[in-house]
Amino acid sequence: MRSKCWGLFDNEGADALRNYKYVGVDNSLAYKHALSPFAEYMVVNFVPIWIAPNLITLLGLTFPLVSLGIFAWHSPHFKTEPPAWTFFFNAFALFAYQTLDNMDGKQARRTNSSNALGMVFDHGCDAINAGIGAINLLVVLGIVSSGEWDAFLVLSAFASPFVPFYVATWEEYYTGALVLPIINGPAEGVLMGVFISILSGFLGSAWWIKEHKFLLALEWMPLKRPGDLVGCFSLVGVIVTCISQIVNVMVLQFKKGRSLLHPLRDLLPFVFLAIGTHVLVVTKHAFLTEAPLLTMGAVSSIFVEQVVSLMLAHMTHSPYIPYHRTLLPPFLGFVAMMSIEWLAPVKEGLDAVEGRLWGLWQGHFAIVFGYTALYLVLVVADLSRVLGVRPFTIADIGGVVGVGNGSKKRR
Q1: Residues in CB range of 44: below 8 A, 6 or more apart
Q2: DSSP state, 78?
Q3: pLDDT tens, 266-302?
């Protein structure tokens, strides 16, 4: 029986957090030979020794968040294409986030301040950025401003960051190590987003969803739009990576004589979230097309809560309870109600649902967003209390060690 003592954590969990050691490696060649050395140079030459690593992490998150705000300011509800300079800024924001995300771990080792709080803070910010990045990508590829809401492109934009993120966290929970493949989202995926944003700045976001002669000339090529190529390439990478991660977990469970079904059960919360999102996208429901930021924000908030909970279960050596303290059931309930034509007819605009579900959907978003924000604050507060540290200050910078060449996540 595990006794509660630290709010979100019991005594055994608190002890595990104090003794937590990160195990993992980033096999990306781009990270090893370019991104990591550049981040190390920036830390050594431009970051004061008294700057807390979590401040660097938080600063990095502000860049994609500002980019999202700029997109929303110039194109409310994303119905029109924003100015070209906003795409260039998004490219800069992506690279800035990636660089600062690589720098925080190096600063932690430099100041000898690595701990479980830094790991959770970094992981949580990455999860938040996955949602922000998916929304920004929809704008950059011209998917939302076109008004078509192509289901394949929308789902691939969300699947690219969400699926490998959750499955990698799930794999780490069962194997105890986070191993990023030679081509992965934090390295090559972000760089591809930078490249796509720059092209949109020069050619316009509509370029990605138009058929072009150079693709039409390739009769053997079933995809005739650049956006389709991006979506297909991303999904192939996601599928290959996730199959490898699932096989790793299944092999380990088999070797240890454990149940093979139990790990698969822990994938169900994300599977249900994906199914609900799929229904919204395929039906092109008014909630999505008329208020995309609201709807995609709700999906992203639930995703953040899921991966942070799974990460904490791994770090505290606790059983992962998928449906404990989650707002997934209400979300699925709304999706079910929206699927009933007489309650919320699809493709008819907000007037068709106003007075029925629209007010409830707004309240649902407020609750989901507020709950997730409060949950993250409580996690940081309890971790700080358990570890006896402050999240944004370094209590003791004595015994400073040099910046190493390990993985960026080794906090």
Answers
A1: 110, 403
A2: G
A3: 999 999 999 999 988 888 877 788 888 889 999 999 9
Structure-token pair, residue 168: 């990698």
Integer angstrom CA distances of residue 384 from 138, 229, 389: 36, 45, 5
> Which residues sit opposite 6 in a β-bridge?
9
Write out the H or E segment, with its range, that includes residue 99.
helix 84-110
Q: Are 197 and 203 in contact (CB under 8 A)?
A: no
Segment 151-190, tens digit of pLDDT: 889 999 999 999 999 999 999 999 999 999 999 999 999 9
Two structure tokens written together for 286: 């008014």
154 and 216 in contact (C-beta within 8 Å)?
no
The residue annotated as part of the active site, out of 74, 77, 123, 212, is 123
The Cα 207–Cα 142 span in angstroms is: 8
Specify the 3-state DSSP secondary structure of 75.
coil
Whole-angstrom distance, CA of residue 108 vs CA of residue 309: 23
Catalytic, 314? Answer no
Q: Tell whether pTM > 0.70.
A: yes
